[in-house]
Amino acid sequence: MPQGELWEATPRDILRAEAFERTPWGKKMAQEFHDYAMQCLNQRVKLGYAPTAEEQKDLEEWRKEKAQQEAPSAE
């Protein structure tokens, strides 16, 4: 693709991406990407970024989920 040329998803590309997200591998990849994005946002906040209300809400939910995952299970 020549430099400066913008790529735009076709309707077929969008359908294939949505179908992939419904597979087990796609769900895992979506979760990994979400975790990575939240880690980046968390780091930006530590460096002085002021998140929007929606970003702050998402970040707090992600932190709660991570704390529950990392907590030892009571078995």
Describe what this molecule looks like in 3D.
This protein is mainly alpha-helical. It is 69% helix and 0% strand. It contains 3 helices and no strands. The relative contact order is 0.07. The mean pLDDT is 91.
List keywords for this structure.
3 helices; 69% helix; 75 residues; mainly alpha
Rg on CA atoms, Å: 17 Å
Low-confidence segments, given as residue ranges, are: none
Number of helices: 3
First and last CA, distance: 54 Å
Largest sheet properties: none
User: Percent of residues in helical segments?
Assistant: 55-70%
The tally of strands reads 0
Strand-residue proportion: under 5%
> What is the average of the pLDDT values?
91
Question: What spatial form do the alpha-carbon principal axes imply?
Answer: flat
Output the helix-strand order: HHH
Structural class: mainly alpha
Summarize the structure.
This protein is an all-alpha fold and 75 residues long.
Topology:
Elements: H1 11-21, H2 24-46, H3 53-70
